[in-house]
């Protein structure tokens, strides 16, 4: 890589990250985040890829954080001393891409190290995305050896159906599709047919705080062993989960439709309002009450 003249670049990091296979891009340096002031630069990377990657900004699953989201994430990272979990690609004063490493433990005793990475379209095909992916893998190996020696771990990454560049890079590096998430939209101007009646003995009741533990237990039952050996199921604190504290910041009980069969929860539809949109966050029917109850419950929602 050619040396950078001070007159050409006024914002050269004082502590760049150097590794053997640096891409041969003039002016390129890698660094960790500095503080929450980087939020605008990282947001510009996402904004700049919307057309190329056909990003739907209103999607609940695509990696399109808001400026406020990034500001909060960076503030939390700095407060926790986790700046090194972020890897920024910068050419002179411009951030052209970045990666973020996160991890969690799953119930099949595998530690998952998720490598998120985004590069501006004009800077793709130059080895920057590959370098960011290799950085994430090396960081994951180091973290696993340091924090979880002898335990199983794996790399993970995401790409939507329209992120063709990211998908090609991941496939070329040996990644494969483990599971997919589908996001479906419904045109509320479409006339709905009348909802079928609930089966005999099933009724929807107002949600009360004393129901929370049964509702959360029903959700767990719905998704238990969805994949063999509880693959792709994150380890969680069951005591805290059953207390339903996780529901309160996000979910409004007035937007829940919970079906009961006597004293048993048969299924539920839970909606949230995010960014001015109604989002069906939970639609589930417990195994003993499938499949004929699911359609009626969803129509009620």
What does this structure look like?
This protein has helices at 39-48, 50-53, 67-79, 128-147, 164-172, 212-223, 238-242, 292-300, and strands at residues 28-31, 86-91, 94-105, 110-119, 152-156, 202-205, 256-261, 264-274, 277-285. Helices cover 27% and strands 22% of the residues. The chain is of the alpha+beta class.
Helix/strand layout:
Elements lengths: L27 E4 L7 H10 L1 H4 L13 H13 L6 E6 L2 E12 L4 E10 L8 H20 L4 E5 L7 H9 L29 E4 L6 H12 L14 H5 L13 E6 L2 E11 L2 E9 L6 H9 L1
Parallel strand pairs: 4-5
Antiparallel strand pairs: 1-2, 2-3, 3-4, 6-7, 7-8, 8-9
Helix pairs in contact: 1-3
Question: What overall form do the CA principal axes indicate?
Answer: elongated
Task: Note the beta-strand portion.
Answer: 15-25%
Taking all residues together, what is the mean pLDDT? 85
Any low-confidence stretches, pLDDT <50, length ≥5? 1-7
Strand arrangement within the widest β-sheet reads 1-2-3-4-5
Structural class: alpha+beta
Biggest sheet details: 5 strands, mixed
Q: Which H/E pattern describes the elements?
A: EHHHEEEHEHEHHEEEH
Which percent range fits the helix content?
Answer: 25-40%
Task: Compute the number of strand runs.
Answer: 9
* Rg (CA only): 23 Å
- Per DSSP, the total helix count is 8
Head-to-tail CA distance between termini: 58 Å
